[in-house]
Design goal:
With 151 residues, the protein is α/β, with parallel strands linked by helices. The protein folds into 2 domains: 109 residues, Rossmann fold, CATH 3.40.50; 31 residues, no CATH class. It contains 6 helices and 9 strands, in the order E-H-E-H-H-E-H-H-E-H-E-E-E-E-E. The protein starts with a strand and ends with a strand.
């Protein structure tokens, strides 16, 4: 089984087997000595660090727009999802926004320490006048902040 690992895997001690992958940006997030040690152990057993291609990254960005998580997921999150898409792998993550975008892409995710995220739909509402929008930002009517809320 192919598996792509988010940074939270390296902060835990759960055993993961199979053909393991992660991205260079996840490696950059591993500052804790325990996480670095777990990373080194997995590298010794065959963990591969790979960057995804542009086509799969573009597909992830489109899916993030669809799930309305575009402003929430980071560049590292996009890389993880894109690599998972390219490899046809399972993604190990506790990040709910990543799981939400993965659902749009029909990617299988596996939680690490938390429960699996349920599918979330977002709506955007002005904090001033209460109008609904399809995006966050500033209200064109009253100028107040548009906030993301669960649908």
């Amino acid at each position: 089984m192919k598996a792509v690992l988010d940074a939270s895997v390296f902060f835990s001690d759960i055993p993961i087997e199979g053909e393991l992958y992660t991205t260079p940006s996840v490696c950059d997030e591993l500052l804790d000595i325990r996480a670095k040690g777990n990373f080194e152990k997995l590298c010794a057993s065959g963990l591969q660090v790979r960057s995804p291609g542009r086509e799969s990254t573009d597909a992830v960005r489109q899916a993030a727009k669809t799930s309305r998580d575009k402003g929430i997921i980071s560049a590292t999150d996009e890389e993880l999802l894109a690599l998972t898409l390219e490899l046809g792998a399972v993604l190990y993550t506790d990040d709910f926004a990543i799981q939400n975008v993965a659902g749009v892409l029909r990617l299988e995710t596996h939680p690490i320490l938390q429960r699996k995220a349920r599918q979330v739909r977002w709506k955007y509402r002005c904090s001033g006048c209460g109008r609904y929008y399809g995006h966050d930002g500033e209200c064109m009517i009253c100028g107040a902040v548009i906030k993301r809320k669960l649908k």
